[in-house]
Amino acid sequence: MRVVILLVVLLSGWPAFAAERCAVRVPTETIVLGDVRLAYQSIGRHSDPLLLLVMGLGGQLVHWPDEVVARLCGQGFRVIRFDNRDVGLSSWTHAAPPVNLGYEALRHRLGLSVSAPYSLRDMASDALGLMDALGVQQFHVLGASMGGMIAQHLADLAPTRVQSLTLIMTSSGAAGLPAPSPALLQLLARREAPSRDIALAQQADLLAALGSPSVSDDREQLLQQAEAAYDRAFNPEGVQRQLLAILAEPSRVELLNRLRVPTLVVHGTADPLLPVMHGVHVAAHIKGAQLKLIPGLAHRFQEAFKEPLLAAVLPYLQAHRQEGRWARL
Fold first, then answer.
1. Least confident of 39-53, 147-161, 190-204, 259-273
2. How many CB atoms lie within 10 A of CB 3?
3. How far apart are CA 56 and CA 59, in angstroms?
4. pTM of the model
5. Contacts of 117 (CB under 8 A, 6+ apart)
6. What is the structure's pLDDT at 4?
7. What does the pLDDT read at residue 164?
C-alpha cells in the first residue's frame, strides 16, 4: 500500500509538493534560553530528521542562501537556521565591557590569554539549548567558518545526539596553521562606521576580499547583500565580541581527537581567511572523517561554487539521513 501511495505522489506533482514543503519564506520565531534569546527559522516537516545550520562570524540566518536551504530541505530534512547570540535578531550582549580588539588581537599573536565575555562553547550550548527547547533529541549539524568551530563543540557536548557533522571552511584553532593576511584581518575587524553608506561599502569590501580570485564579483550585488544584512540588524560590537570568542579559544585538537561522530570536512583551495591546511588539519584529527577539497573555493558562498559545494555535501547528508532513519525503526 505504501508503494502505491508513493507512486501516486510521484506521478501527481511531487516537485510542487516538495517546493511547498520546503518554502523558505517562513516567519522568524524566537526562543528564550536563560539570558539568551535566539531567533530561528524552521523549514520543512517537523517529522523529518533535523539539520541544524550554524553560521560564521557576524553572519545572520539570512546569510544561508535560500536556494541552498531549499535544496537541503529537499533531501528530506527539517532545516533550522538561526542567529547566533550578538547578531541578527538574537539577543545582544549589552552588559559586556567595551572591546579593545586591537589590544586583545596583539595578546593573541603573542600567545597570551585573551579576555572574552563568552566562549564558543557557550555558543554551542545556545544551539544545544535550542534543540532542547524544540524537543529534538537527535539531529545533524552543518557549520561554516566560526559555525564549524561551534559545531565541533556541539558534537563534543552531545556526542550521542549529533548524528552527523559537516564542517565547511573551518579550523581546529591549532597553533602553527597558516594565518590570514593582516590586511584581511583588519577588514574583518573594521565594523565601526559613521554612516549607513560607509558601513555598506566596508561590508562589500570584506565580501570581495573573502571571495575567490577566480571569480569576478559584481560590486552592486555585494552592496545589495550588505544592505539586506544591515537593514535586518547591524551590531558591530557584537561581531567584535564573537571575534574575541574565537581569539580566546585554545586549540581544539584534543576535542577533535575524542570525537566519534561521522564527519565530512569541506574546504576550498583558495580560502584567504583559513587557508586549506586548516581544513586538512581538522579532518586529520577526527577519526574516520572524510575530506573534500573544492578547487578555487574561498571563504564565501559564491554562486559559482554553489553546485560544487552541494555536490560535496548532499550525498553525505543523504547517506547519514538514511542511516539515522533506519536506526529509529
1. 190-204
2. 7
3. 5
4. 0.91
5. 93, 96, 97, 241, 244
6. 42
7. 98
Report the distance separating Cα 216 and Cα 8, nearest Å.
Answer: 46
Residue 77 has pLDDT above 50, yes or no: yes
- Residue count (the chain): 329
Please, are residues 165 and 153 in contact by the beta-carbon 8 Å criterion?
A: no
Q: What secondary structure does DSSP assign to 29-75, as a single string?
A: EEEEETTEEEEEEEES-TTSPEEEEE--TT--GGGS-HHHHHHHHHT
Query: How much of the chain is in helix, strand and coil states, percent to nearest 5?
Result: 45, 15, 40
> 77-106: string of b/e by CB count within 10 Å (b at 16+)?
bbbbbbbbbbbbbbbbbeebeebebeebbe
- Percentage of residues of the chain with pLDDT beyond 70: 88
Region for 56 from its dihedrals, namely left if φ exceeds 0, alpha if ψ lies in -120 to 50, beta otherwise: beta
Greatest CA separation for the chain: 67
d(CA 219, CA 224): 9
Q: Which residues contact 242 (CB under 8 A, 6 or more apart)?
A: 57, 58, 84, 86, 87, 146
Host H or E run for residue 79: strand 78-82
| Lowest-pLDDT range of 42-46, 59-63, 187-191, 234-238 | 187-191
> What are 142's strand-pairing partners?
53, 166
Going along the chain from its start, the domains and CATH numbers come out as 29-179+235-322 (3.40.50.1820)
What is the grid cell recorded at 165? 557533522
